[in-house]
């Protein structure tokens, strides 16, 4: 019996999962001549653009964290939950350990591949600031969101008159978190947004920046520019601001800045930039290993001499389609296509029931922008089945809300 051609995808985020799903659009990969395997440490997707809605209980975890096996149940993609230990690009082998719950299996397993997609993203870099890894909260996963909510409940049930929160980084994640936290905590909350630079949403449109500033002011979020964090302690942060060192008392610190490559990615024998990202050709391939494609946060694509693509879900989503198409072309011996990024605009949540949308000629903020944003992301959920389940839940909540108001 002929051994099937094996396509191995590492990482189940927007780059990896959607590559697996896009491969299913080609009848070729549904035959027993091909095997597609997806490996991720978690058992569920994290639909990161809607993760912030968990803070204010606007959405539930199952809506933005659907289970991989359920998502892939009607495909020929095999899902394996486990941790990648290393990749041997010469032998075309992946070493990994399977995981069940929080426990790793004893011993490594080896997967041979014919084509490999690297889409494991990056890790939050906390080691550079003393105390950050111990006391700061990250916000990248459903588990992070649940841990944050648990801490918020403790603070809300305390006898403190105020709850002091510092959010580090005024990029999109920091701004979205600050607005959601301010809405959740209300008058009791004192939320500070701490930024090393001199503006919020540095790489975003002027309209999005103005909308964000307006939303932050309306929620009494204090924004500290030109401020660097020197240390994080259990009840305060040490900052350098306006030429002097001072401290700010805090009950909670959220960290949203700084990425670093995963160790085994850094150890790969291929070209990397100074941040440890893999340098790829415009076709998403590694130059010396054309059977390997890299996408998402772990890759820097030779896209434009003076431009680097942002590390966003929108970029990874578009790269997934290109990666699947190029694997299809490669197995047929055809010339691969270059990846071209089309910037479709920006969408950010700016609090409970509020957002900004800036896309081509459409520029809108407030409640209507929030509705548009949620329905655009509804269409981006990975399968029609899951989209319908989430939509049905939203309609049910809306109907129940009308009933309670009568």
TrEMBL record:
Keyword vocabulary terms for this entry: FAD, Flavoprotein, Oxidoreductase
Presence of keyword Flavoprotein: yes
Domain (FAD/NAD(P)-binding) spans: 6-320
Query: Please, which domain of life does this record's source organism belong to?
Result: Bacteria
Q: Name one GO molecular function term.
A: NAD(P)H dehydrogenase (quinone) activity
Q: Which InterPro entries match?
A: FAD/NAD-bd_sf, FAD/NAD-binding_dom, NADH-Q_oxidoreductase
The protein's required cofactor(s) are namely: FAD
For whether the record's keyword set contains Oxidoreductase, the answer is yes
Biological process, per Gene Ontology: aerobic electron transport chain
Family affiliation:
Belongs to the NADH dehydrogenase family.
Spell out the protein name for this chain: NAD(P)/FAD-dependent oxidoreductase
Q: Lineage, please? A: Bacteria, Bacillati, Cyanobacteriota, Cyanophyceae, Coleofasciculales
């Amino acid at each position: 019996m002929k051994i099937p051609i094996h396509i191995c995808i590492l990482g189940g985020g927007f780059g990896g999962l959607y590559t697996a799903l896009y491969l299913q659009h080609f009848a070729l990969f549904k035959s027993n001549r091909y095997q597609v395997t997806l490996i991720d440490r978690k058992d569920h997707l994290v639909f990161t653009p809607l993760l912030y809605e968990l803070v204010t209980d606007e959405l539930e975890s199952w809506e933005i964290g659907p289970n991989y096996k359920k998502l892939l149940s009607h495909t020929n993609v095999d899902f394996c939950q486990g941790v990648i230990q290393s990749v041997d690009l010469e032998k075309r082998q992946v070493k990994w350990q399977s995981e069940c719950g929080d426990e790793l299996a004893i011993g490594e397993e080896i997967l041979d591949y014919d084509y490999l997609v690297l889409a494991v993203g990056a890790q939050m870099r906390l080691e550079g600031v003393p105390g950050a890894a111990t006391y700061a909260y990250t916000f990248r996963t459903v588990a992070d969101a649940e841990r944050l909510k648990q801490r918020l409940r403790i603070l809300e049930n305390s006898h403190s008159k105020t709850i002091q929160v510092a959010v580090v980084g005024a990029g999109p994640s920091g701004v979205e978190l600050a607005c959601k936290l301010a809405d959740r905590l209300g008058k009791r909350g004192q939320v500070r947004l701490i930024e090393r630079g001199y503006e919020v949403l540095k790489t975003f449109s002027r309209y999005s920046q103005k909308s964000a500033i307006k939303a932050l002011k309306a929620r009494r979020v204090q924004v500290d520019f030109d401020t660097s964090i020197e240390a994080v302690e259990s009840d305060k942060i040490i900052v350098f601001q306006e030429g002097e060192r001072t401290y700010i008392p805090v009950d909670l610190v959220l960290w949203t800045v700084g990425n670093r490559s995963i160790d085994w990615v850094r150890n790969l024998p291929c070209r990397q930039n100074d941040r440890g990202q893999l340098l790829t050709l415009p076709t998403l391939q590694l130059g010396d290993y054309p059977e390997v494609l890299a996408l998402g946060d772990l890759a820097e694509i030779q896209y434009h001499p003076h431009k680097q693509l942002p590390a966003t879900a929108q970029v990874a989503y578009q790269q997934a389609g290109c990666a699947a198409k190029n694997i299809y072309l490669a197995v047929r011996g055809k010339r691969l296509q270059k990846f071209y990024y089309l910037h479709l605009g920006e969408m950010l949540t700016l609090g409970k029931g509020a957002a900004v949308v800036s896309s081509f000629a459409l520029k809108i903020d407030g409640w209507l922008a929030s509705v548009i944003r949620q329905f655009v992301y509804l269409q981006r959920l990975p399968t029609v089945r899951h989209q319908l389940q989430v939509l049905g839940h939203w309609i049910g909540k809306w109907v129940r809300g009308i009933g309670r108001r009568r």
